[in-house]
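Section 5.1 Outputs to date
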Amino acid sequence: MVPYFTFSTATWLLERALSSPVSGEANLSWAEAMFISPLSPYWFLFTLFFIFLITPTFPQQKNAAVGLTVAVLLKSVTFFERTCSITLIQYVISNEIWFVLGMCLCTAKFTAVIHKKKHTWMQTGLVGFTVFIILSVWIYYKVQPTHSLIAFFLGLLACLSIILMVSGAFNERYQTKGWRFFVKYTMPIFLMHTLFPAPVRVLLLKYGIVNPYSHLVCGLAVTIACPIAAGWIMQKLKWPEFFLYPGKFIVKFIKLTKKNKKIKNKK
């Protein structure tokens, strides 16, 4: 919850400072934005915290099967009607299935099975993801469904395709230094990718640059580059890293404290 409150508050302040025309009117109070209607994309952390609280771990496949059954039942309810007016409960019920599916893959040792069998997993995943893109575009423009069941199955296809692509790439040793570099900064990019484009957009508009392609290119560049730079600086300064990885920071602090105590005892 430390990253959630930190960066949700930063986004809330930014929205109030740069309301129209960049981010729209910011009508929510701080308490509403934190506890009632979480801001995008931080609603995910808010939801994940409570999912962690209510979901047990599955050390065995039997436990995983029970957990998956419960998650499917909860998800099936959302296919027919809005389950609750409380945003948090709605988020938890809708997203519990993804959390449980991830644990089931770990319990079943999914990646180990893939690595044992020789198959073009990466190519299979790429084909699946291509099908996902085609179906998504076709449904959006031709069918325009409002039913969440279609969106759920499209999501399943996308997730499975990405897992197969990544697992296949890892199995075939396609990982590069550049890929490993970006992996280190996925959390800073997730937490800060919405904070930097808005001020850049304001600057562009201030200087009369209204070309949408210029905004798109500049926005994409700062969305990735600025969070990486901020994450690197926070890592070098040590203590600000607490706002990104509080658990990691606390473990380091405890180890350092124990080390200092041992040195003092020896003296």
